[in-house]
Model the fold of this input.
Amino acid sequence: MAGSASNAQWSSRFAFIMAAVGSSVGLGNLWRFSAEAGQNGGGAFIMIYLACVLLIGIPVLMSEYIIGRAGDAASAIRSVDDVAEKSGVTKRWNALGYTGMIASFLIVSFYCVVAAWVIMYIPKFLFGAFDGQTASEISAQFGEARGNRWGFGINNIGVMYCFTGFAALTAWLVSRGINDGIEWASKVLMPLFFVLLIGLSIYSLISGFSTEVITASGEKSNGAVEALKFLFKPDWSAVNAEVATAALGQAFFSIGLGSAIMITYGSYLPKSISIPKSAVIVGLTDTAVALIAGLAIFPIVFSHGLDVNSGAGLFFETLPVALSAAPGGAFIGAAFFILAIFAAVTSSISLLEPIVAWVVERFNVSRRKAALIMGVLMWVVGLGSVFIVGFMDILDGRITGSILLPLTGLLTVLFVGWRMKRAMVTEEMHGISPVLANFLFFLVRYVAPIFVFIVLVLGVDHTYFGDTLGKVLHLVK
Done:
């Protein structure tokens, strides 16, 4: 029925966990985490990242769930309105709902384009487009693939076809509702994702152990050992302010905080499910996936002597170079990118859901109509990332990643920690001991705001203030 989105609920705790994990586990876990680790010293970065997830990521995630379930609505905006009214504070706090919803909508517009690149790589692996290619030739193929908008061939599918198809799939799944769409996709795709990821990591480790490499010091080793040392042997001498803030930022963005997704998902959460326990499960599962993805990627990279510091190119350029030379590389490469599509689908539907839920409530229209309208708008905005060079970087690095997401996260913890009635917060934190509940509330009220503010300030890319503060922190480390 039109306008009844708030009546929907997850059918079980497992369904909610799969949907929440599916939202947080996306392409960023597969390439951004590994790229960030590669560029920031490996093990030391990961240790700091884990601490940030536990002390900051999980408290912010928990805060978003609390707002969602405490509010008598589906959309983040209406949820904040309701909680603010019950707490006797101004409804202007619903700004965090607007900023989060806008962020998620902008992200899904270019996320569908990145997913299109992933789709384009699957036939390239299956039909031998990378066979016998040098690193420079494969790198050139990535550039050509992004510029190929309308071409059509076995391993040369245009971006527009893949982008349009993925955007349509996202809108269709969201139009089917919480149980028949988002929940169904998450319960089917996430278990398949985990099986594929674990299988690929086992393959990568076995392949790495059988490949001899010569280290920088001239010693004999193998790709798997070097990868394990890189991931789990911290080099604390490499730690500086930039590494610490990179780990903090990755912990914040990896879980999908600040995008109104978890407020919306929290609104569908039955009262019987423990929010703190669920937040811990989602946060730790997201981290585990990122680490296992590292085990799937780095043994192959080290075995072939490739650069671990190649950023996003690690996924679209470095990995294809390694897999093209590996036994069964075509099959493994295709499987890896199919795995990435599974993660992309569960993330994209979660990114579109907040604005669809809001349209349903605000304009009293059916979910199908709301999903169709917002799906078309998502596609239109996404065209900018397809046709305009640098458009995606502006949306990702400067608008959403640097401003909207951390700003929403900061407003969220300030609202829950300082403005929401403590009794309401306590009621939503059932299922754990009072001591642990008080500790988590302390993190929400005092610790998380400080560090999310740091993410906001240092994340303002290419600004004098951000660069200057970064240099000051580096000097006083």
The first strand starts at residue 212 and ends at 214.
